[in-house]
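hey m, so remember when u said the tokens were messed up on ur end? i reran from scratch. heres the input so u can diff it against urs
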Amino acid sequence: MESKAEQTTGRFDALKWLVVFVLIAAGVVGNLYFGAESLLYRVLGLVALAVVAAFVALQTDRGRRFALLLKEARVEIRKVVWPTRQELVQTTFIVVVFVLVVALLLWGMDSLISWLVSGIIG
């Protein structure tokens, strides 16, 4: 059973998402309306609206969970063991050679099938 605080937060979350969508719509409509203005001013206005919309979105429950996901992903990326330059070059070489071999095999099979079909059809 949800507590009253969770229900109230959920109700306000819908209102916050509505504000986010209104801000995005205002950015789109404003960009069209002020099409004759300088591109710099329009971009600055869109960036400002995007920052405000992101701030409002991060105040919702989903926004907080998304921010937590990003933080945890950043921690996990730090744990990754990245390949050395030599490993990267060797692996890339192996992939390129394999792709070339498969391409040659497919070209050969295609040529053979084309030759057989043209021989049958005449």
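this time it looks ok to me. The chain has four helices and no strands. if urs says something different then somethings off w ur setup not the seq
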